[in-house]
Amino acid sequence: MQRSLPSRLWLVRGMALLLVLSLLAPAAGAALGVGGGDDAGPSQLGPGTVEQPADNATVVGIQGYHFQGQGNRKKPARVVSADGNATTNWAYEDALGSRWFYDVDPLPNGNLLVVSTNPGGTTVFELDRESRERVWEETLPYHDTHDIDVYNDTHLAIANMRQWNDSCDCSNDRAVLYDREDGEVDWEWTFRNHYPNSTDGGFAEDWTHVNDVEVIRNGTELLLSPRNFDQVIAVNIESKEITERLGEDGDHSTLYEQHNPDWLTTEEGDPTILVADSENDRVIEYTKNEQGEWEHVWSAGSSASLSWPRDADRLPNGNTMIVDSMNHRVIEITPQGEIVWEYFATWSPYDAERIGTGDESNGPTMRDQGVSGHKAVYGSAGGLSATFSSWLAGSAQGTVVEGPVIEFAGLWGRLAPWFQPVWLDSWEFAGVIGALLLLAGWGLSEAVRERERIADGLRSLRERAV
Asked: Which residues does 378 contact at the CB level (< 8 Å), separation at least 6?
């Protein structure tokens, strides 16, 4: 007697089960190595592509992963130093409490100015690069400060975000000059006094997210980055007037929630701003033209190569160093976009500086180098940068679905690493999410198909309960 073939329904169920198991198999294999030792997993620091060894060390401020004030040992916040071949020299972690590290600036004496935060406020300190000991420190009652710069021998310039005022239900986000000798603020510039209160939808606890301050024009002005306003501004310290403005609220084609703008000038003295255009997954350079308007001169990267970049510095050799935050790396690219130096720095690096090149950007503008246009970033050694989101964005380029797919890839690339277990790479984690979505859809379809039987069962249970 010939056996009957399985029904079409069971064939579909079998195929669905096989697909779920295939998606979960890489993650299951990776999970078996979770207990393989403290050095296992992508919390390691190390080199990628090194076509042009750097002539000095590179220091990186790594934000790390925290949730509700608790740090993750496998995703630590730290300050690290890499040598010219992108080999880790040292890593500094704060043993005193859970902290995020943000801005790291080289000082003239060879030490570092480090900005860190904790649930109690912001701590800024001078770190001896040789001994890794603090020379001095200041603890300020400011929540989640990302950037503090030296203004002069006695004062610090501070970008003070999330400064909510309960008495007026309004934002006191501001930039301040803080006197370290007196422990007092003796100059401040408050955003709500210079912007419509309806900007970015109105006051909120994180209204401006002003994430950067830089002293420019021989100490007469401050360059500020109100991230949520999609713009960079220069403020005159004496008059308190806005003297320069690049971008505007909601104009995402110019800037979209940017980080760490740097002020440069061309050989002819034209103002230039190099900035990490974070939500657009690119770094971009604007220079003022003869009409006094900001002109896009050069840019590099896309969601296929960068994921939420948060720093870009022009080096004296004309290359650009980029902190590619959600690809967990620092890269140096040529004006044409080729990666010539790459250092993997998990988790979520925020700021990087090349020792010996000064603070921020100290190299030629792209206009002075005769380079213009948008460049693709290429030449990575792979590693954590060969991500699911980068592949997805790259695959969609030039197709009819390019826009929405790249937008989704960018969102995935920025959010997934915060939830991704350290023993999974981005592809394995994407497989787990895909399997869960497939199981959810499968369960829903089975529930719809069997809805009458389920309803009968529920009625029977109710009758028994009565």
From this structure: 305, 337, 338, 339
Confirm whether 428 is domain-assigned.
no
Domain contains 416: no
Q: For residue 427, is it within any domain?
A: no
Residue type, 7: S
- Torsion angle of the four alpha carbons 127, 417, 336, 368, in this order, in degrees rounded to the nearest 10: -40
What residues contact residue 324 under an 8 Å CB cut-off, 6+ apart?
A: 306, 307, 308, 309, 330, 331, 349, 385
Q: Which amino acid is at 299?
A: S
Domain annotation covers residue 59: yes
Count of domains for the chain = 1
Q: For residue 372, what is the domain's CATH number?
A: 2.130.10.10
Bridge partner list, 159: 175
Q: How far apart are CA 376 and CA 60, in angstroms?
A: 24
Strands 373-375, 294-300: pairing kind? parallel
Q: Which domain holds residue 114?
A: 45-386
* Cis before 418 (ω within 30): no
The pTM (predicted TM-score) of the whole model is 0.85
- In Å, the largest CA–CA distance within the chain is 98
| Interval 120-138: pLDDT, tens | 899 999 999 999 999 999 9
Question: Which phi and psi (to 5°) does residue 373 adopt?
Answer: 95, 180
pLDDT tens digits, residue range 135-158?
999 999 998 999 999 999 999 999
What distance in Å separates the CA atoms of residue 34 and residue 73, rounded to the nearest whole number?
14
Checking if the pLDDT of 35 tops 70, the result is no
- What is the C-alpha to C-alpha distance for residues 451 and 346, in angstroms, rounded to an integer? 48
Alpha carbons 356 and 379: distance in angstroms, whole number: 26
